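Sharing a chain and its predicted structure for anyone who wants a worked example. Both blocks are below, sequence first, tokens second.
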Amino acid sequence: MNRKRCLTAVLGLSLSLSLTAASWGASPAKNANVVGEYQILATTAGGLQGMQAPYMLRLDARGTPGDREQKAVHAIPAGMKMGKELPLIRPDRPAAQGTANNVPQEQQNWTLKIYWGSSKTVQKGQPLVISPQDMKSGKGKFAELAGGAGVWKGEPPSGWGWGEWPNKQSSIPVPAGASLRGGHQVTGGYLPDIQFSMDRHDFLPPLSVKTGGDVNSSISLSWSPVKGAAGYFVSAVAANQAKKETIIWTSSSRASMGMQTHEHSSRINELVSSGVVMGPDKSAADVPAGIFAGCEGVMLMASAWGEDYWASYPPRPANAPKNWKPDWTVNALFLSTWTGMPGVDVEAMSRGMGGGDYQKYQQKYQEEADEQDKQGEEKQQKQKQQKKPGLRLPVPGFKF
């Protein structure tokens, strides 16, 4: 596996892995049989990814009854700097592609080693080793650790209307300095009129992480507190081509996979209590020395989660019964992520770059990787030409 593919596989594997009082802008449903659900996933990206796209937004509207051709729009506040509204289009996704359990094909026969806990040395009882057989079957410890994190609700029931942004009609980038604060309105043929206002919820500040050490020693990570963060999670992943091993480390108090997905703040609070996620008072972590020796492209990742935003009509009563069903609900979740590599000062690199300079850096790295691949292929070709194999006959052991 060449360096480019190795790093791609590492990224693919790594990424495959308290309710608040809201400001109510109440509007009655125009049809008693129409129910609307709206979800906003707001991400702030720092580090290498943030140099290209500092903010990301995903909008998901669903309602019943719904016709496939019915459309919806989200009228956004001026502070978003993205025009007056965003179209919500029903996704037309192809049949799911990929390999078993979303593990890259190139790593189907690799061993997975998992380390955990902030420590300069490997702690007793580590690593947890997951065999290629468990990776392929999705059973055993791999199934326990890889089981469904995140808040994706899947496709809505048959007959429901459904719209998303970004989509094939509109996918403009969210500009730096954009703000979700202000009044919002979501309307569409399969939705009630949804009006709400975000007064104190917004994109989280970016994570700023500093790293020390290298792959042959303990790697240290430290970060500045993110205002409004409910907890932090740090992880590292790399591939050892020679040993056909994927190595994962997390800051969790027990064996776990990486976390860079949106999660409800109530869930984050539970994970802080159990030690999987570090509390909001933490600001540093150490990767044990030596676990990434011989690996290529060690990728470091950090996540911070903010407080959920909830709104509904009618507003949720203090002691709502289990069968309480509002006309519509809105839920917004906030995540701040960071990606980097040991020994790379991403913040300094970012200060020295602007606009499309990240693409230039990315292109330069790609050209270097391609040149190394080319040189390797030319070397292999020369070796083949020097061997000059003889003509093989149907009799074993004879050739001339």
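Comments welcome. Confidence is low (pLDDT under 50) at residues 7-32, 95-100, 354-359, 388-400.
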